[in-house]
Write a structure and sequence with these properties.
Blueprint lengths: L2 H8 L1 E5 L7 H10 L4 E5 L5 H11 L4 E5 L4 H10 L4 E2 L5 H10 L3 E2 L1 E2 L2 H9 L4 E4 L7 H9 L6 E4 L8 H5 L7 E3 L5 H5 L3 H16 L2
Parallel strand pairs: 1-2, 1-9, 2-3, 4-5, 6-7, 7-8
Helix pairs in contact: 2-10, 3-4, 4-5
Amino acid sequence: MSIIDRIGAARLLPVVVLERAEDAVPLARALLAGGLDVAEVTFRSDAAEESIARIAREVPQMLIGAGTVLTPGQVDQAVNAGAKFLVTPGYNPAVVAQAAACGVPIVPGVNNPTGVETAMSAGLSLVKFFPAGPSGGVPFIKALMGPYGAMRFIPTGGISAANLKDYLALKAVLACGGSWMVEPALIRAGAFDRITELTAEAVALARSA
């Protein structure tokens, strides 16, 4: 199964912010216990690179990616640490090109037709729709599905248990990115059992969509 297919099979992509690298492995194991074997660790903290490396090394069954990748240098850092895919908040041609040079799948962020066409011109067929809620949510994705029938989306930003099924009901949505099951406060508190519970609930919800 390809990396993109694994994300699609999961239907959920947890967006994880790790402030301490020592939380990385317990977090990954909590997600696995809840039924998710894919996650995105964002480059929003200094612990991101080491966190990805620890998960890649100690929890190899987890498909780990890097998010909030903003520069070609961060592409190299993420890939060298063991990230198997990359996610960006916007479309940066230099970042997309560096990912291609490294042979790693990238899911760039877009929120308008121009962004979709820019991704298409680079040979991409999967983008992150971000920020999903403020950008128009489900109705906006439905509007994009008309002219861009071959494009798939991972909506992220404003996704919750309350609206997850609405997004996943759209044929164009491969998976949804979300952080409600991996809130930084839960990680900070070491509440990994609670993360497992929330993840299991989210997985059950996604599978019923």
